[in-house]
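On clarity, I found the account of how folds are encoded harder to follow than it need be. What matters is that the chain and its backbone geometry are given together, residue for residue. The format is easy to grasp once an entry is in front of the reader. For illustration, here is how one protein appears when written out as sequence plus structure tokens.
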Amino acid sequence: SEMSVTLKNVNQDHFVKMFAAYLKRQNELAIPDWVDAVKTSATKQLSPQNDDWYYIRAASVLRRLYVRGCVGIGGFRTVYGGCNNTSVAPRHFKRASGNNIRTILQSFEKMGMVKCSPKGRVLTPLGQKTVDRFCQQLQ
């Protein structure tokens, strides 16, 4: 009997890179005008060097929604945050920018892959089916 392949059976790094390329090919994810001029967190000094960073972050957000279930913007901000590196003062944790994450989730909502719930965003059956089918092809 053939075992069904889900996201939890696939290498996460490989999935994120391949799903980002898939999102770029599909051309359904709405890319804002400000993508090339924005930082991802207060802890970063520069904007991302990779031109496809928005697709990579979108794939990572979708993967995290699949694994964790219901997650809000604040939960994602904590996940993608980090410590600021001021060379003298002690390090303090800073949360990531919420606008990047919010626009990604709103784009996925327009695509029908994510929906709002009282406690955050959740994957729709269409979103889960899309991820599962993609994982089947990766295997």
